[in-house]
Each structure stands twice: as structure tokens, then as C-alpha cells.
Amino acid sequence: MIMRCVVCGKEYPADEIIYTCNECGSVLEVLMETEVSKKIFEGRKWNMWRYKEFLPVDESKKVSLNEGGTPFIKCNNLSKDLKVDLYVKVEGSNPTGSFKDRGMSVGVTKALEFNVDTVGCASTGNTSASLAAYAARAGLRCIVFLPAGKVALGKLAQAMFHGAQVLSIKDNFDKALEIVTKFALGGYLYLLNSVNPFRLEGQKTIAFEILEELNWESPDHIILPVGNAGNISAIWKGIKEFYESDFIDEKPCMIGIQAEGASPIVEAVKKQKLDIKPVKNPETVATAIRIGSPVNYPKALRAIYESNGTALSVSDEEILKAQRLLAKKEGIGVEPASAASIAGLIKLIDDGYLDHGERVVCVLTGHLLKDPKIAINACKKPLEVEPDFNLLKKIIG
Questions:
Q1: Is 228 marked as a binding-site residue?
Q2: In this structure, which long-range contacts are made by residues 161-166, counting pairs with CB atoms below 8 Å and at least 24 apart in sequence?
């Protein structure tokens, strides 16, 4: 097992704490050789550790809250309305309510292997919530840097409740990440943002589960929200690993969805570029993807280009409309960033990008109650009435 720069190709030993390439400054990826039959997974518990041979940590030291094994649901009502074969991967069912738990399970396990005593991250919310829980599980000190006033209350409460030291930075996420990275490079903490290549190894198991749930057939498209761009990179890596293991015969197109107020990757894809122009003051109601300078953009662009996929942006209005639609049509409640994938799907259909009958998987990254204020504001207030049966009968009709 080694780490390799995704841009210049320089290799590094996997037992070295390093986050980016010393030569060109780009992000790293973990490479490991795994030769197993897919039959090895049969009979194992349905969580992400059923794929332990593909995870670059010692399973005997794993820090786990039984993450993974999330619901994979065929959306019959939306499939009929949108004329596609739609499935959703409900990552909000992970222990702390988001896909981040997969990455933190592997990342915090790696922290124990490195014998560190403190872990840290910058976060728009979900990362801090997840890291705080897994650090508590491992008995490690946890420090998180959050952009002041920009984190949904559900996520902030989780980080604090699990015992993290929470520092509110009077700036945006990108500045918070810059600061926590300085602490990491100074040896004060082990950084578990998605710039850490081991964290993404946990998140690639989303791809493994999708493929196994589809009886080892690839969907035509996988659509997901993009913030710091780790998840689209991880899922594509998982797809390729199962393809190279001859578990599947085809690969899907990867489609990344960003909010209009934070869409540097979309702009790069429009121009077929290999780099991005950061957004200085990103703004969107979808706080989980309110990131103007995604550190994993090289991996994300590679995933999109290699898979013949695309990226597009959606408005806050489209995101909130899709959030309500998913809840009312399928009974699935997600935070705004998750609904970006559904908003993107609808836009792709309206634009004629997707054909009728194509099999599509939308990744729903976080639970509805991560951002309860948005959900409450989207609904009518409860009607206060007297406890009178006849009166209530008239109202109900």
C-alpha cells in the first residue's frame, strides 16, 4: 500500500503522516492491491466493514459505530413522474446522520494506528459532528473549526454534545480549513478533512454498496452534491476498484451538483479545465456544500471527465423545491445539500441530458434534522384550535 499524488504521480509510504504532495502541492490517493472474489462478502454483516479487504487499515483496531449499510430505495413515485429508473442511497441513516461517518470510521482508525492523541477538522457542520462522535468513541481529543454563524444548529449541537472543542472562526469555511491545516502541519493534531486520503477510503464504500444492491450491475448515472469534492472522488474510486476487480462490466457517469452560489467545479467543467477559480464568498441555503475552494477538485474533475459525466449548478429555490418534493412523494427527509442531487436530476431531465428509462442513483448525503430551521420554515405553522370534536371535524373535512 502506498500514497500517490494525483497530479505529478510522486509516491509516498502509507505509514507517513502527509496530506498533500511535497513536490506539487496537490492531493494524494491511497493505492492498495486487493485480489478477492466478490463471494467473500456473502454472509457478512451489512455495513461498510463487509468490504474490509478494500479498506487500508487494521480491522482489529477499527473505530466503528456500525456505519454503512444505509437504505437503498427505489423511488417508484418519482420514477413514474420523471420517467427514469430512480434509486436513492440514504446516507442520512448513518450513526450521526451523514455520509461522513464512513470516512471518519477509517480516518479515526488510522489516527490510532499513527498513535496521535488529537484529531481536528474544519467543517460546515457534518464533518465536525461525525469527527466528534468517532473521536469520543476512540478516546481522542477533538478540535473543530467552524465558520461563525454559518453552521446549521443540528450539526453544531452534535459537535458540542460529543465533547469536541469548538472554535468559531469569524470567516468562511475556506479560512477555517486554512487555519486547521496549519495546526496539522505543525503536528498539533491529525487532520481529518477530506484532504486526508484515508478518510475518502471509507466513503468509497458507498459505491460498493450501490453496486452490490444492484446485483453487480452499474447504474447509468450517479448524481450527488459536491462541496469539498471528496465524496464524488471517493465514489468514483470505489467504482473503479470494483471494475478492476471484475465485479462489474460497466461504469456509471458521475454527475456533480453544486449550488449556484458555490459552483467553482461546475464552471471548470463548462470550460473543460483541469483547475478551478475559487469563489471568494460562497453563499447558499445548502450549508453543507457552501464551499468556494474545494480541496479535492483535481480528483473530482478527474472523476467527471474519466466517467464521461458532467457537473451543473442549481438555485437555492430549486434545492428547496426538490427537498419538499422528495419528502412528499417518497417520504424521505433530507437536508438541503442532499436535495441538490434531486434538483440536479430534475434539471438534467428538463435539459434533455437524461433519456427516459435510464437507471439513476442519487446520493442523499444528510438527514433532514441536520438543518431543522430550514425544514420548519418550509412548512405552514400548525393550526392552533380548541379541542372541540365538531370544530375539528369541519376543519379536517
A1: yes
A2: 161/132, 162/129, 162/132, 162/133, 162/135, 162/136, 163/132, 163/135, 163/136, 164/128, 164/131, 164/132, 164/135, 165/141, 166/128
